[in-house]
Amino acid sequence: MEYFIGLMSGTSMDGIDAAVCAFDDSLPEPRFQGVQAHAAGHYPAPLRERLLTLQRTVPQLSLRELAELDRDVARAFADAAGAALAAAGLPPGAIRAVGSHGQTVFHDPAGTCGSIQLGNPSLVAQRLGITTVADFRRADVAAGGQGAPLVPAFHHALFARADRPRVALNLGGIANITLLPGADASDVSGFDTGPANGLMDEWAERQLGRAYDEDGRFAASGRLHPELLEALLGDPYFAAPPPKSTGRGDFHLDWLRHRYPGLDGLAPADVQRTLCELTARTVADAIRRHGPRTQEVLACGGGTRNPLLMERLRALLAPMALGTTAGAGLDPQHVEAAAFAWLAMRTMRGLPGNLPAVTGAERPVILGGIYRA
Ligand SMILES: Nc1ncnc2c1ncn2[C@@H]1O[C@H](COP(=O)(O)OP(=O)(O)O)[C@@H](O)[C@H]1O
Ligand SMILES: [Mg+2]
């Protein structure tokens, strides 16, 4: 058995997920054996605020500030990994490598500039005393891809079934789907469907002063506003064909106001309810359109903890079955971090990590840079 730690923080900025993962000795491709321990790391409040501001507005920051963020994110990532290590009861020497996604601060899906993640990997490696793999997206971009999404390859390795068309659905700050029509990797596709928690969080924070709408209660107290929903669904992103990827820079409060100038005259709870519906509708529409034969949708990410969102998804997806990845043996909150442990394992073994059909790259490539402890 070999152990890797995966570190991930998505666009929700709710914190860092750290997962200690076990892999068997199968060759050439070791198989994922499960999460041994998980820890949820936190960004100190001022750091979180600075990172959120970077996502929501056109970044205005000095190179010194950029370097500081790179350092501070690395410290928070290393702390999260340390906590997971302690929870697993393992010494650093037991871990082959850390796979650190870092925090995305820039993503240019349509162009060739790729994507920038902060969290100085050398600092992560040296604070932990563990070799760290990072900068996973750049090799795919260099090979002509969008550098995203990368997690579908892991979804395929874990969840694909020859006789059962499935979809893996991640409800993070942004929602993304992986279509798994069968066992063959070349049939996998996946893309970001649009906003999920990120937009709901922004509205909840503004109206309630809380980081998110706990259990979807605020949304459940409001009524769906059909006109607002139609205005939002009119954004060309939703009808655009894949490959496509997006970020919170595309879906934020100013976007809401731009799509529906009368926004501030609506009851705040009705807006929350409608944003929840927007996520459910755009996800369900994407699955129906691109995976009409899907039998089962396996959801993961923080959105699975929002009962209203899950209820609306279930209704819109029927007769497809909706469950969470827990039904397939992986806690919904561990999936993304585990994916970066898996990707680090592949890098250390010299195995490619991207799926060209998903990212648009010209070929499979070995992802990431290796930073020695
Ligand atoms: N009890 C809950 N009720 C509603 N939403 C929740 C709940 N718990 C978590 N969430 C949502 O999940 C988000 C975090 O999801 P996560 O999968 O970690 O996203 P990311 O990958 O973008 O970091 C939170 O910001 C929040 O919106
Ligand atoms: Mg998160």
UniProtKB/TrEMBL annotation:
Q: Single GO molecular-function term?
A: ATP binding
Protein residues bound to ATP: G10, T11, S12, M13, D14, G15, I16, D17
Matching entries from Pfam families are given as: AnmK
Q: In which pathway does it act?
A: Cell wall biogenesis; peptidoglycan recycling; Amino-sugar metabolism; 1,6-anhydro-N-acetylmuramate degradation
Q: Which reaction does it catalyse?
A: 1,6-anhydro-N-acetyl-beta-muramate + ATP + H2O = N-acetyl-D-muramate 6-phosphate + ADP + H(+)
Keyword list (alphabetical) reads: ATP-binding, Carbohydrate metabolism, Kinase, Nucleotide-binding, Transferase
Top-rank taxon: Bacteria
A biological process from GO: amino sugar metabolic process
Q: So where does this one cross the membrane?
A: none
Recorded hits in InterPro entries, A to Z, give:
Anhydro_N_Ac-Mur_kinase, ATPase_NBD
| EC number(s) given by UniProt | 2.7.1.170
Q: What does this protein do?
A: Catalyzes the specific phosphorylation of 1,6-anhydro-N-acetylmuramic acid (anhMurNAc) with the simultaneous cleavage of the 1,6-anhydro ring, generating MurNAc-6-P. Is required for the utilization of anhMurNAc either imported from the medium or derived from its own cell wall murein, and thus plays a role in cell wall recycling.
Q: Report the family membership.
A: Belongs to the anhydro-N-acetylmuramic acid kinase family.
Name of this protein = Anhydro-N-acetylmuramic acid kinase
Per the UniProt record, the source organism is Solimonas fluminis
